[in-house]
């Protein structure tokens, strides 16, 4: 396995695709996707455009769909949900397809959707991602952060570092971090996680987008998204733009 971390979708190479690509948007799209699937949503379908989301979701019965839209941290008018994972309770999403468009995370997924395997990761389902990687051992792995409007984000980088750190720990005696790191960003992300692993909520409070969410009174979202390994759910792409819960024996 060789890991490459890209802080934003724009930084990921465009001339080839990896064996496995992992989209990260801790605040909050990939946290919401994992939570929705853990709450028995039928699937999550992502869109960069709200107009396309409305067009496609119109083809579903209203009782079988939920529309989730977020721009600038706030819910899009006319949608059932915004982008809060705390809204994805079983009584609300079970058996339904969640159609979602967010400022950053869904754009990231669209960028990597042609990879052989596409996963989504957040801090809350980090271990599920690591377990999959160690079982399948893809040769090349991209971890692509969503960032914030094209810029680096602390929360996505620390999540990428958390994934590689745990893989490295579990490969001790087999491969070193230097052997599985494909670019310099890997070392930086692991160092960030190593420094902040005992205070991830504190880091999220310092992140630009975290501060934005605090101004929107999303304190509980930050607390939830700062947790590690609380869901055993692994979202995996079934077809371009459509994520389901990975089920393996």
Task: Summarize the structure in words.
The protein has 249 residues and is an alpha/beta fold. It is 39% helix and 19% strand. Strands 5-4-6-3-10-9 form a six-stranded mixed beta sheet. It is globular and about 55 Å long. The mean pLDDT is 95.
Task: Give keywords.
249 residues; globular; alpha/beta
Kindly report how far apart the N and C termini lie. Answer: 23 Å
In DSSP terms (H or I, runs of 4 or more residues), the helix count works out at: 11
Which blocks of ≥5 consecutive residues have pLDDT under 50?
A: none
Q: Tally of extended strands?
A: 10
Placed side by side, the strands forming the largest sheet appear as 5-4-6-3-10-9
- Mean pLDDT over the full residue set: 95
Q: DSSP strand (E) fraction?
A: 15-25%
Question: What's this, in brief?
Answer:
This protein has about 250 residues and is α/β, with parallel strands linked by helices. Helix content is about 40%, strand content about 20%.
Strand-helix topology:
Blueprint (H helix, E strand, L loop, with lengths): L1 E5 L13 E5 L4 H10 L4 E4 L3 H8 L7 E7 L2 E2 L14 H4 L3 E5 L3 H8 L4 E5 L4 H11 L3 E6 L8 H17 L6 H4 L3 H13 L3 H7 L1 H8 L3 H7 L9 E5 L2 E4 L4
